[in-house]
Model the fold of this input.
Amino acid sequence: MSAAPLAATAEGDHVALAISGAWTVERAAELERLIERTSRRHARARSVDIDLSGLDRLDTFGAWLIERLKRSFVIRGAAANVTGLSETDCALMAELQTANQAPAKERAAPNAILLGLNSVGRGMTEVGTSLLMVVHMFGALVLAALGTIAHPRRLRFTSIVHHMEKVGWRAVPIITLSTFMIGAILAQQGLVRFHAFGADMYVVDMVAVLVLREVGALIVCVMVAGRSGSSYTAEIGSMKMREEIDALRTMGLDPVEVLVLPRIIALVLSVPMLTFLGSMAALYGAGLVCWLYGGMAPAVFLERLREAIWLPTFAVGMIKAPFMALIIGLVACSEGFEVDGSAASLGLKTTASVVKSIFLIIAIDGVFAMFFASIGI
Amino acid sequence: MTVSNNPPVISVRDLVVGFGAATVLNGASIEVFEGEVLGFVGGSGAGKSVLMRAIIGLLPKRKGTVEVFGSDLDTLNGRQRRAIEQRWGVLFQQGALFSSLNALQNVQFPMREYLRLSPRLMDEIALAKLEMVGLRADVRSKYPAELSGGMIKRVALARALALDPDIVFLDEPTSGLDPIGAADFDELIRTLQQTLGLSVFMVTHDLDSLHAVCDRIAVLSEGRVIATGPIETMLASKHPWLRSYFGGKRGRQVQRPTEKAMQH
Done:
């Protein structure tokens, strides 16, 4: 049959529409344009007959389009009459007669300026709430810690060791390798610049102070935030999604004590060790470059190192490590608890966890720098 | 019942599926005819879901053939296969709604991927589908995390029906629903099956569903389909597993209303 799917014959203000062929999903787009055109062309019709006897196949899409065609006439006050409906299609047409009765809500186009202001405002309040969240988590952590001090047997020792293996031991290769390379790069850059002044020796001073005071702890913490902070958020977040945290609560256990405390203790213990290893690897890298690239004998390098640094230089770096670890842990765990039901929010919170903890690490590093400068170390 | 005169839409022959050393299905054969509701039962862990997943291609098979709409799925190229995939809809046990999309967007997802429709038509059709599965229009903007278990199943059913498929696979559609919700869902499946002329492949444990909606029942045991037929055949069977399944304490409770209905 090659007849048009929708044929219209108009007599005065009466229109006869003959529908034929297959009205199915494959042709839905074409049919929609067709009914729109037909309904516009016969906008002034007072009575409409829709004859469905030529219909071969009908599915929900076709049935809805016929229903929409009919309604477009009815809404203008015309009388619409459907005939020739086969028995098999009757139920489907009846089903769609009740569909979409509620008037579709107009989607108001939002004002672009208001949207921009809205997102700025939201962003600002989020900064506040996210800081509050970290403080809140810190309070909960202190409470949990006090609880375990009162009842030391509630401390999950196995869990701490397990997490130390994950965030500490398994991170050793990648962290020593990266800090080794950072040390080597710093030394190489220093040698090139300092050679111009004939001050090759001072490369050792620069690298040693930079690595021990600042870069060692920073690099290690940034890597830990990316490596372990993100996995803490994802772990806790997916536990939240699958109601495991609610399950813990109903069993009378405190999720902060069970999940957060061991993780943060593991971080606070592991990060100083990683910082120490990282600083040593960086110094080793620097020494190797000075020897092979700058022609400085290892004995000379060590001699210069001994003169360049004293114990506080080393201590300044090491003292920062546990505080930074605490920040990473608090941010990661509090973001984990913020995850709601959707997969997208898990991704969002994991990203937020890494970004926020790296930012806070740098901020806290600045605070420490000011503090040490003012006490003269 | 005249459905067995209809051509089969799915025909599975001597299917072997296994994981590692374990063989879950060992020569399973089954046919689903056009316009029927086939209930598929078997003990927990017997491999009902495995068979369903092997038919729709989520699990690799070791041997055997799967024909859908008369064409062997192994011989099809990518385009032909996608054409077949558009003609079936799957309702997963947990719904498997996309958690980052709301109810309306979930139903529209297959339409967006496969059809070029105007946004208005997609909205209207998706809303109509949500209404067909018995949901009110105000669930459209809710996300899966905000829906109850029964609503998730209904939205998932609406999504399975999005492209007006010819076959619907249902994996334990009534599990996790209360008896009233389950009965409603059974009725819904029956109504939709009749309105849309669907063929339904339903994995289920629910004896009420088997009575209420299934034209035929297939029983899987020890990796094979050991019996197929209408519920009366199952009840009359002498097979020990069937007797304990349909004749056990829970089975008898369901039998009574049908006996009453027969006396009328």
Chain A touches chain B through 26 residues (CB under 8 Å). The beta strands of chain A are 6-11, 14-23, 47-58, 79-83.
